[in-house]
Amino acid sequence: MKSKLHNLNGAVFFFLLTLLVAFFSWIGSVYGGNEVQSLLSAEGIRWSLGHIVENYVQTPALGIVLILLMGIGVGVRAGFYDALKRLCRKERLLSRKERRALMLASVTLLLYVIVIVGAFLLPWNFLLGVTGDLFPSPFAKGAVYIISLGIGVSGMVYGSVVDAFRTLSDVVNGMSILIARKAYYFVTLFFVVQFFSSLAYSGLAEWAHIPDEVVKILFYLSCYLPLLV
Fold first, then answer.
1. Could you give the CA distance from residue 215 to residue 21 in angstroms, rounded to a whole number?
2. Which residues contact 179 (CB under 8 A, 6 or more apart)?
3. Burial class (CB in 10 A: 0-12, 13-18, 19+), 74
4. How far apart are CA 155 and CA 147, in angstroms?
5. What are the pLDDT digits (tens) for 180-198?
6. In the chain, what percentage of residues exceed pLDDT 90?
7. Distance (Å, rounded) from C-alpha 51 to C-alpha 16?
8. Could you give the CA distance from residue 164 to residue 194 in angstroms, rounded to a whole number?
9. Is 158 exposed, middle or buried (0-12, 13-18, 19+ CB in 10 A)?
10. What is the DSSP-derived secondary structure letter of residue 126?
11. What is the per-residue DSSP string for 96-113?
12. What is the 8-class DSSP label of residue 40?
């Protein structure tokens, strides 16, 4: 029994929680008055079927993680981070080509950062909002893409120098490598979203006097922590 609990993965865990929400929403709708909506009623089932896909694809974590993994994946496929790790740990000497690639990739990343920072100093700065504010602004909305692009470009430079990337197809494969490795995360995220959306619809959290801020914090933690597993 202990072994089965130890091997319980995140996807199954949140699936079971969703079933519990459905069950208690039914109980709550009977004894809790109008505060609780049953997920097992005809209306609740219609809501669930009509929002399963929508809730998942509109979750910010889905797009954020996908975009970041594409940029980071280029560096992983090129061997950029492996070279950095070996350099820091002094596990094995880098070859002359690897040292040159590492230097060029680092310079590229530094120049990229300088360009982004410099863009804020231009009179016609297009990264800030029309009122000159950072929040909201194109930069704030596209920060994840800007970060991913910078990481990806530096990884492309490293991979090109060490001959890890010979064609654009190699780069595209690099963009997908971490997405494939983290496929389990996207499955887990699906069940995380279904649990919290079902909880919100049922009204059980409000009925139990759980603050909205607490629910939001738990939601964000549940969306991103499985990525570290």
1. 14
2. 66, 69, 70, 73
3. buried
4. 12
5. 999 999 999 999 999 999 9
6. 72
7. 19
8. 40
9. buried
10. S
11. HHHHHHHHHHHHHHHHHH
12. T
